[in-house]
Amino acid sequence: MLMLAGIVVLHITTIILLLVATIDNAWWITDTESTDLWGKWVLTNSVWHYTNLKDYPEEYLQTVQATSVLACIFSILALFVFVAQLFTLPKGQRFTFTGILQLIACLCIMIAASIYTSELHANDTVGAYGHSYILAWISFVFTFLLAIVYLVLRKKSE
Fold first, then answer.
1. Could you read off the pLDDT of 119-156 as tens digits, one per residue?
2. Closest CA to 121 of 39, 28, 58
3. Which residues contact 141 (CB under 8 A, 6 or more apart)?
4. 138 Cβ partners below 8 Å, 6+ apart?
5. What is the SS3 string spanning the chain?
6. For residue range 90-105, what is the model confidence (pLDDT) as tens digits?
7. Phi, psi torsion values for 73, nearest 5 degrees
């Protein structure tokens, strides 16, 4: 029972990390700007102003946005499927479908962070990756670990 609670807590933590990484505005930060997947905040005269992401290649940006959102959706869906499988799966069976959904979420967030790394800020010399970017990579590790756990885990037979 304790292991089950730990898995659920880790899964909820992963979902929260994915949502924060997708929504928060700190994928790329400098002293005067903070960029997320949806826009850029620029500091002028001690006031933050929201601007669109005009300088980014649209096809890469939309890919990063889409795969980040899909990672959130697949991870949330995997949690619901896991809970449903707890009640419907025959004893001794593996949580394969939940594991596959987590692997898809893992793949999506890896694609998003990789494209963001290689295409959107590869030539920038000023600034650094922010906490949302780091959370995306941490959630990648968590979703991968959860996928492995779900693929190995069997429903306990009594």
1. 888 788 888 999 999 999 999 999 999 999 999 987 66
2. 28
3. none
4. 17
5. CHHHHHHHHHHHHHHHHHHHHHHCCCCEECCCEEECCCCEEEEECCEEEEECCCCCCHHHHHHHHHHHHHHHHHHHHHHHHHHHHHHHCCCCCECHHHHHHHHHHHHHHHHHHHHHHHHHCCCCCCCEECHHHHHHHHHHHHHHHHHHHHHHCECCCC
6. 887 888 999 999 999 9
7. -65, -45
